[in-house]
Every structure is written in structure tokens, then in C-alpha cells.
Design brief:
Length: 227
Amino acid sequence: MESNSIPHWPASERPRERLLKLGPEALSDAELLAIFLRTGVKGLNAVELARRLLTEFGDLGHLLSANRQQFCAIRGLGEAKYVQLHATLELARRYLAIEWQRGEPLSSPKAARDYLCHCLQGLEEERFVLLLLDSQHRVLQTVELSRGTVDSAHVYPREVVKTVLKANAAAVILAHNHPSGVAEPSQADRLITGRIQQALALVDVTVLDHLVIGRGQSCSFAERGWL
């Protein structure tokens, strides 16, 4: 048992040493997760525990988006690791938000999607956010307009207009998540998008897209020709 513990592995195989030598991008999901877990449980070292967790949840995305009850029910996890994980995820979200607000133009629709997916994917309640852009499509600000229940978020076009005018934005991207994990837009999603688009047209502001974020998937209104 002891010989199977990670400190007894050759240095070239230990996740921490591999990260320091090769960089985090060279590590597998299980190795990165093992570094986060730090220790294993009886009968399993940290890497083996990480592999078991990925197998039980299906993939890293489902593990990271598991709710508190699901996460803490797994042997080797608990509230302390749940808190640590979500603090880490929130730090990553805030770091990305800072990077996005340094005046660089959007490089592609995919870049906007990746950022918004990272912000909204896996949340347990529905949130509706507004990405504010200037005339060169540089990010001015990301604003959370509404935080609702798992069933709905309430967004009012007049509040969107006020927010856009205050930031002096020239264009926006709308985004909200579906806690169910299914990214297919509802009829209500299409109706509120149309109302917001009409309201912003009156102040000469363009809605570039509305992204609906699910678990590991997203839907673009622009790609479907709905804008």
C-alpha cells in the first residue's frame, strides 16, 4: 500500500513535479484533480481517487458542476473540498473577467462563447448576464442582470437599456444558463430576446448574440439566424 503512494513514485511521474517541469497543460484531468485533492483515501492514492471520481461523474465538467449534496456524498470528498473547489472556480471566473476587460477586441464569436460558458456553466440557479462592448467590440463590462430560481430569471428591457446607456456601449451579447443542463432555448427565451433587441434598437445598440449555456453545450441565437 505504502509503495503505491505518490511520494514513492519516480519524480517524473508525480503530478506536482510534472506540472513544475512541463506546465499544467501537459497534465491529464486526473493528474490536475489529484493536485487539487492533495490526498487520497484508504486504499486509493490521490491520482486513483481522481480517476474514480471522473469515472463516477462521467467527466470533469459534470464533476465540477455537481451540487453540494452530490459532491459531498462521494467518499474522499466533503464540504471542505466543496468550498475549496468553488472558491477556485470563482477565482478563475474573476480572473477571466479582468482579462476580458483590458481593452482587447473580441477575437471571434468562439472567444465570447468560451468566456460566457466558463462564467455560467454548472451554476445551480439561472443567471442572465450582459456583455457590454464598445464600437470596436472591446469588452467594457460584464453585468449580471438577474439571478433567478432554477426555473426562470426575470429580465426587464428597460433595465437593459439603462445599463447599456450608463456604460455607453455600442453592442451587447446576451447570455443565460439553463441549470437543467439542456441548452435548447425556450419560447420565453426567444420572446425576451426580441423585446430586448427592439428596445436597444431605439437607442442604436446592436444585439450581436444571445447564448444559452447548458452543461457542456451552448446555443447561439445568431448562428440559428434568430437575430
